[in-house]
User: Fold non-specific serine/threonine protein kinase from Ignicoccus islandicus DSM 13165.
Amino acid sequence: MDVREALSVISKEDLEILYALEKYSNRYEFVPLEVLEKSTRLPLHVLERSLYKLNSLKIIKRQSASFLGYRLTIVAYDVLAIVSLMKKGYLDKLGEKLGVGKESDVYLGITPSGKEVAVKFHRVGRTSFRHVARHRSYKLESSWLLQSKVSAQREFAALRELSSVGAKVPEPIARSRHVVVTELIKGAVELSEKPPLKDPLKAFQDVIETIDKAYNEVGIVHGDLSEYNVIVNPETSEAYVIDWPQYVERDHPRAKELLRRDVDYVVKFFRKTYSIPVETEEVYEAIVKR
Assistant:
């Protein structure tokens, strides 16, 4: 069951249980039934009926080895985030899935005014803990759900700062838990698809200028930049840099190393794919000496 299906079957009582499970998730791996009864104040027969339903639908997980307890699944966390965004007026509907990444799912969202937006669910747990720990500069939380929340917090903060200086990134709109809502870049495709571009040089300049603004005006380095986290509109050749949660601060010991690597990936891709005659060192030096 995905988040859209779950939203269609969730009742008010179900939500009360999900809120209680989230509240006590830092204290218990599986929240005991008696704690849920006390927290939700639902009649026991109503509580047990909802728990049975949620567990059957795999929205929550049940364990009964040493005691009867329950915990959230990622679908439950998805539901809590979307319900929050709806209550705050940022979303009215959640539409079709637009894409799946290593550590995210992106859906189409519709605002109350009918505007289309991008809704990104962070999925840090898709990679192994060792891989995540090695490629993240920030402290990891103990739970995959909390790690995804931290990832979303970082990306939303980075996008706000980058947008404020005119960098080519999707404009951030809202965040709840592990979900980030941004503007939808219509007509854009992943640069890895190597789409024909009317003006490849413009796309290249958009990416490099964003790297430059991030480093010199915001004080961060993307740290994982490649053709897989750049989207481009083939008609306008406008390019946008996405996927920012793993950024490092400019004063990080590896910042310049990661900056050089980001620049190198971009330069080599545009040189090979679109015959842009540029060299890594020339672009890198222009950024660090600005």
User: Anything to note?
Assistant: Residues 128-142 have pLDDT under 50 and may be disordered.
